[in-house]
Specification:
61% of the residues lie in helices and 6% in strands. By secondary structure, the protein is mostly helical. It has two domains: 74 residues; 43 residues, no CATH class. Helix 1 packs antiparallel against helix 3.
């Protein structure tokens, strides 16, 4: 059986991995930032290390919060490039017997389509796709 893993490439996996890392580090650094800011002012004033740690925890928390945005953009952009589409057709839930394949034609295009129960249903679906893509509707078959 042929199995295509579209949309699970190296870039989307890297984006997802960085997203998870950024979320975990943001949570940990937020807790650390809260603990360090919660210390009494006299302890913070005495120790330069505590002041430095407080500033670093806050700054790195902001870095990882922005990493969340960057990794989401990387993940979504990689998914678009890996699947080469924004439109989900949904052939994964259809029985293989209901899919028709025709081609390649003279332009090296392979047509993959779903068999519909009636010509009217097929014509309605074709018109909906044509309207969405901005193309003229195909002629009704005789």
């Amino acid at each position: 059986m042929l199995k295509l893993d579209l949309g699970s490439g190296q870039w989307s996996q890297t984006g997802l991995r960085f997203l998870k890392l950024s979320i975990v580090m943001t949570i940990l650094l937020s807790v650390l930032d809260g603990v360090l800011h919660g210390l009494p002012r006299d302890i913070q004033a005495e120790s330069g290390f505590v002041r430095m740690s407080t500033v670093w925890a806050t700054d790195f928390r902001y870095v990882f919060e922005n990493g969340i945005y960057a990794s989401v953009l990387l993940f979504v952009g990689a998914k678009v490039f890996e699947t080469r589409t924004l439109m989900s057709i949904g052939y994964d839930a259809i029985d293989a017997g209901k899919i028709a394949i025709k081609g390649p034609d003279d332009d090296n295009v392979v047509w993959i389509g779903r068999r519909y129960a009636s010509p009217h249903e097929a014509q309605v679906v074709a018109a909906a796709f044509a309207e969405r893509l901005g193309e003229p509707a195909p002629a009704k078959p005789d």
